[in-house]
């Protein structure tokens, strides 16, 4: 079993930046894919970015491409989401997720993930 704990959310003005972290613990010896999802008020959870165990393979939702960067440090069992040029519409609860996978698999839908963090609130003011 893998436990995921998110941190780094908060309140930021439009144009600012936040760096979310997702620390994994438990059975993390095997490779796992990871992703960040968001859930805005009244909307379904949707993928923001995803990354393979081999961090060079990534996926981004169109609305964050060029502004957000997903990365990971496998030695620290931590996945990051660097969010730059934040907009009010980015306001949501952000969740990290993980699933055991091969080194190069990028998983982009919520049903592919087995483990979820508790979520961290990101609020962007105008």
Q: Which SSEs are present, and which pair or pack?
A:
Layout: E1 2-7, E2 10-13, E3 18-26, E4 32-39, E5 46-51, E6 58-60, E7 68-73, E8 78-83, E9 92-100, E10 115-116, E11 120-125
Parallel strand pairs: 2-11
Antiparallel strand pairs: 1-3, 3-8, 4-5, 4-9, 5-6, 7-8, 9-10, 9-11
How does this structure look, described?
With 126 residues, the chain is mostly beta strands. The chain contains no helices and eleven strands. It has strands at residues 2-7, 10-13, 18-26, 32-39, 46-51, 58-60, 68-73, 78-83, 92-100, 115-116, 120-125. Strands 2, 4, 5, 6, 9, 10 and 11 form a seven-stranded mixed β-sheet that branches. Strands 1-3-8-7 form a four-stranded antiparallel β-sheet, with no helix packed on it. The mean pLDDT is 95.
Question: Nutshell version of this structure?
Answer:
It contains no helices and 11 strands. It is mainly β and 126 residues long. The strands form 2 sheets. Strands 2, 4, 5, 6, 9, 10 and 11 form a 7-stranded mixed sheet that branches.
Distance between the termini: 40 Å
Structural class: mainly beta
What portion of residues is helical? under 10%
The gross shape turns out to be globular
Strand content: over 45%
């Amino acid at each position: 079993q893998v436990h995921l704990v998110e941190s780094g959310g908060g309140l930021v003005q439009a144009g600012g930046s936040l760096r979310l972290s997702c620390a994994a613990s438990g059975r993390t010896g095997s490779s796992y894919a990871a992703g960040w999802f968001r859930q805005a008020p009244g909307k379904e959870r949707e993928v923001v970015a995803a990354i393979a165990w081999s961090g060079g393979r990534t996926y981004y939702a169109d609305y964050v491409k060029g502004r957000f960067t997903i990365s990971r440090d496998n030695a620290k069992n931590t996945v990051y989401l660097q969010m730059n040029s934040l907009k009010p519409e980015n306001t949501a609860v952000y969740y990290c997720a993980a699933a055991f996978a091969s080194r190069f698999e990028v998983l982009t839908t919520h049903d592919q993930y087995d483990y979820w963090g508790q979520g961290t609130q990101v609020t962007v003011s105008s």
